[in-house]
Specification:
Elements (H helix, E strand, L loop, with lengths): L3 E5 L5 E6 L10 H37 L4 H14 L8 E3 L8 H12 L5 H22 L4 H16 L3 H7 L6 H13 L7 H16 L3 H20 L6 H24 L3 E2 L10 H16 L13 H4 L2 H25 L25 H26 L13 H28 L3 H34 L6 H11 L4 E4 L5 H6 L5 E7 L5 E3 L4 E2 L8 E7 L9 H8 L4 E5 L2 E10 L8
Parallel strand pairs: 3-4, 5-6, 5-9
Antiparallel strand pairs: 1-2, 3-8, 6-7, 9-11, 10-11
């Protein structure tokens, strides 16, 4: 005879669950139960691994069609190569504030160890990081839920991020553009979702510190949202204990980063260049432009980046995704403000007094409610902080390349949308369960099926849009032709303008080494003291100088080359590149301070 089990809801109510298949008094053998559980977990783990690999391959293909790779991406690959060769502290390197030392560079180091220096890393590691962000987002959308709500939330995140618009793919699938830093922030969010001390708190501190050591964008993407969400938690709970774990984790992450950086400097590590100045008069124009750029990334508009070959009617379906993300953000922000003012912790989908049943799809843990609102608060604050950061950092309001600072906001918004969709589904099921008349249950069930079909149709349209992107001709890598030409002419060691240097080194798999240079105030070509290693120049003699007419870099051209080394003996044109060769070896002086 089957038995019916009940479980207690977070608000004190109870609800019946599915009948047990095991007769009373005849429990499963403990060993058999463990074997079944272990087999199920193994199957799930294998399926997850296969799914992750498939997702990485899909995003890899999308990355190739969205980007051609550049020296920014190549420079961090060379950082990873140095780490892989044992130079973990990068002694002698000069890097920017966003060095990515303890973020993206670690992934490239492992990749170089496994398979050597390859141009495919320009796309493979960004694809892997994006896939891990999606996995983290899916898990966060499911947090505190199970069944249909969990599936709906996870599917929402997957549809919004795994099938990115052409504009979003330009930044989501290109490295290093703070996507790895966003992943570090998401891991810290997840570890602090319960607002408690423990191993989760320790892991969060480590990832926040790693982010701070490699990319100061973690201040906006992780540290500030966690700190401020901790203050909000204090208001919600009306006790300092409610937010102390988050506030202290943010502070400890900064402190740990400072300690590690001090030790590394004492041992000998890389130097950091001066940050670009912030133009205060540009902040307001930047903030006004942030909304339109965000709409471009979401696919609501397609005037600046185009659609990547997607038909207009299909591209317009992304308006649905944009509306869902915007509505989810507004709803979560309203709940944050309301509950902070009223001192409430109640989850938006929690059962009301009229319907005290536990949420269908909610976890049985008594801490389910904190699991929901703490994550929401961190995501909401992160979304608010990103455009403010863009306003301070974008040096040209109309330069679309600065949209890279806005991409993390779309990631946070997609995850928040997944969580709000899961909450809405759970709430609808709770109301349906509270009604006992059969005629009353049919309407919510029909509405749920209609919503699921609509969501599936939208996801398929997103996937079809990505298919159109993949069907287009990829932009290719102009530097590949130059790398082959230089190797064929035995020109294997040279210097060049930044956009023509490290990218050629990576494209040639290290067979042709081109080191970046810059023109100083006296119009002489010197070492570029960012994204470079002093060992590349010290005592070295170079064969040639190269620059790219398609991407001008300061005054790096034939005129300044002649001032520095005299008139070249030969000048070659290889596509948009110009290669200058002298009858004698070239020596590069130390670069100007930055």
């Amino acid at each position: 005879m089957a038995t019916v089990r009940t479980s207690t809801a977070d608000d004190g109510g109870s609800v019946e669950t599915e009948p047990s298949e095991t007769p009373v008094g005849a429990p499963l053998d403990a060993g058999e139960s463990r074997r079944r559980g272990g087999g199920r977990r193994t199957a799930i783990a294998l399926a997850g691994a296969v799914g992750l690999v498939g997702l990485v391959f899909l995003l890899y293909a999308a990355a190739i069609h969205a980007n051609s790779g550049d020296s920014d991406g190549a420079s961090v690959i060379l950082e990873g190569q140095a780490i892989a060769h044992g130079h973990f502290l990068l002694h002698g390197w000069a890097l920017s504030l966003d060095s990515f030392w303890t973020v993206d560079a670690l992934f490239y180091a492992v990749a170089v160890l496994l398979d050597g220096l390859r141009p495919s890393l320009l796309y493979a590691i960004p694809a892997l990081l994006a896939a891990l962000v999606i996995v983290a987002g899916v898990l966060m959308a499911r947090a505190g839920r199970r069944g249909a709500p969990a599936i709906a939330g996870a599917a929402t995140v997957f549809a919004l991020l795994a099938f990115p618009t052409h504009a979003m793919a330009v930044f989501f699938l290109r490295g290093p553009l703070h996507i790895g830093t966003t992943l570090w922030a998401l891991i810290a969010f997840a570890c602090l979702r319960k607002g408690r001390f423990g191993w989760g708190w320790v892991i969060a501190v480590v990832f926040l510190a790693a982010g701070a050591l490699g990319d100061l964008q973690i201040l906006v993407l992780g540290i500030a949202p966690i700190f401020l969400a901790g203050l909000v938690a204090t208001l919600r709970t009306r006790t300092w204990r409610g937010g102390i774990a988050q506030v202290s984790a943010a502070a400890a992450g900064v402190a740990l980063a400072e300690i590690v950086r001090t030790i590394a400097k004492a041992l000998g590590t890389f130097s950091v260049g001066v940050a670009n100045p912030t133009s205060l008069h540009l902040i307001l124009p930047n903030l006004r432009h942030a909304a339109s750029l965000g709409a471009e990334l979401a696919g609501v508009r397609s005037t600046l980046f185009g659609t990547g070959g997607v038909p207009t009617a299909l591209q317009d379906v992304h308006i649905v995704g944009g509306v869902v993300m915007a509505a989810s953000f507004v709803a979560a922000l309203v709940m944050l403000v309301r509950d902070a003012l009223l001192g409430r912790q109640r989850d938006a989908g929690a059962a009301t007094p009229a319907a005290p049943a536990r949420l269908p799809g909610a976890s049985d843990a008594s801490s389910a409610a904190p699991l929901l609102w703490r994550l929401d608060d961190m995501l909401v604050i992160g979304i608010i902080g990103v455009p403010i950061d863009y306003g301070a950092l974008a040096l040209a309001p109309r330069d679309i390349e600065y949209a890279r600072y806005l991409a993390p906001a779309l990631i946070f918004a997609a995850i928040l949308a997944g969580r709000m969709v899961a909450r809405a589904v759970a709430s609808l099921r709770a109301r349906s369960a509270a009604r006992h008349a059969a005629v009353s249950r049919r309407a919510p069930a029909a509405a749920g099926r209609a919503a699921a079909l609509l969501g599936l149709a939208v996801a398929l349209c997103f996937g079809a849009g990505l298919g159109y992107n993949l069907a287009q001709r990829d932009p290719g890598q102009p530097g590949a032709q130059l790398a082959s030409w230089l190797e064929a002419h035995h020109l294997t060691e040279g210097v060049g303008s930044y956009w023509a240097a490290s990218i050629i080194t990576v494209e040639s798999r290290g067979k042709v080494l081109i080191r970046p240079v810059v023109v100083d105030a006296d119009s002489h070509i010197r070492r570029y003291t960012r994204e470079s290693d002093s060992a590349w120049y010290s005592g070295q003699q170079f064969q040639f100088f190269v620059y790219n007419l398609a991407i001008p870099w300061g005054s790096d051209d034939s005129a300044t080359a002649a001032i520095t080394w005299g008139r070249p003996q030969h000048s070659y044109a290889v596509g948009s590149f110009r290669v200058l060769v002298w009858p004698k070896p070239l020596v590069v002086g130390p670069g100007p301070p930055t």
